Amino acid sequence: QSALTQPASVSGSPGQSITISCTGTSSDVGSYSLVSWYQQHPGKAPKLIIYEVTKRPSGISNRFSGSKSGNTASLTISGLQAEDEADYYCCSYAGSSTFENWVFGGGTKLTVL
Amino acid sequence: QVHLAESGGGVVQPGRSLRLSCVASGFTFSSYGMHWVRQAPGKGLEWVAVIWYDGSGSYYADSVKGRFTISRDNSKNMLYLQMNSLRAEDTAVYYCSRDGPTAAAYDAFDMWGQGTLVTVSS
């Protein structure tokens, strides 16, 4: 199973909005609503920010939102803040009736200018 | 407060074995599926293995199938990863993660430990 495709880097100024894309296939992103997004600061563990394509865990700012169209999922961060600078990873369930599998994207480094 | 803490990492020679442990607290461990996810130095995240809430089912990434075994002891709130025939490419930080936030079926990796570093080198 190939990794999901994300842009290597994106950037934006404080207050702006950015969108990170995550492209998979009809075997993963296109088939399931189990797409999630993770934020990882340097030297820290990943943190769940979006699950089931659009849902936010308790305590996650509503500046983070998720969507999906076909085989591509997207994470939008509005009102960029300095603390949003981090690596972001998408993930999709990619299993079937005979095996279980999860695939991650290669990660996107967000720079807040 | 949910807390996951891994241990057991270290430096090991290729071909040798290592067992990682993860102790869970702050939630009903026996109600949740659990995963191991790893991250090679400077690289992205890679799913490694999952075990069902009751231990009755487990699945592995192709890269570790036949070499790694995931297990759990619900009486001790412990998750394990037995790693055999280790290779240089297994070098990574290994995270234990809860499948949540709901306990039913698969969802996302909603809680993570701080990770433990495994280095496979001669």
Task: Please characterize this protein's 3D structure.
The complex is a heterodimer of chains A (113) and B (122). Chain A is 0% helix and 42% strand. By secondary structure, chain A is mainly β. In chain A, strands 1, 3, 4, 7, 8 and 9 form a six-stranded mixed beta sheet that branches. In chain A, strands 2-6-5 form a three-stranded antiparallel beta sheet, with no helix packed on it. In chain A, a hairpin with an 8-residue loop joins strand 7 and strand 8 (102-104). The termini of chain A are far apart. Chain B has no helices and eleven strands. Chain B has strands at 3-7, 10-12, 18-25, 34-39, 45-51, 58-60, 68-73, 78-83, 92-100, 108-112, 116-120. The mean pLDDT of chain B is 96. The A-B interface holds A 1, 3, 34, 36, 38, 45-48, 51-52, 57-58, 89, 91, 93, 95, 99-107 and B 35, 37, 44-47, 50, 59, 61-62, 95, 101, 106-115.
Rg measurement of chain B, Å? 14 Å
Question: Which chain pair has the greatest contact?
Answer: A-B, 26 and 22 residues
Largest sheet of chain B: 7 strands, mixed
Total of helices of chain B:
0
- Give start-end ranges of low-pLDDT stretches of chain B: none
Work out the strand percent of chain B: over 45%
Instruction: Report, as a whole number of angstroms, the end-to-end distance of chain B.
Output: 40 Å
The dominant shape of chain A is elongated
Main beta-sheet annotation of chain A: 6 strands, mixed
Low-confidence stretches of chain A: none
Question: Which key terms come to mind for this protein?
Answer:
heterodimer; A: 113 residues; mainly beta; 42% strand; B: 122 residues; seven-stranded mixed β-sheet; four-stranded antiparallel β-sheet
Summarize the structure.
The complex is a heterodimer of chains A (113) and B (122). With 113 residues, chain A is mainly beta. Helix content of chain A is 0%, strand content 42%.
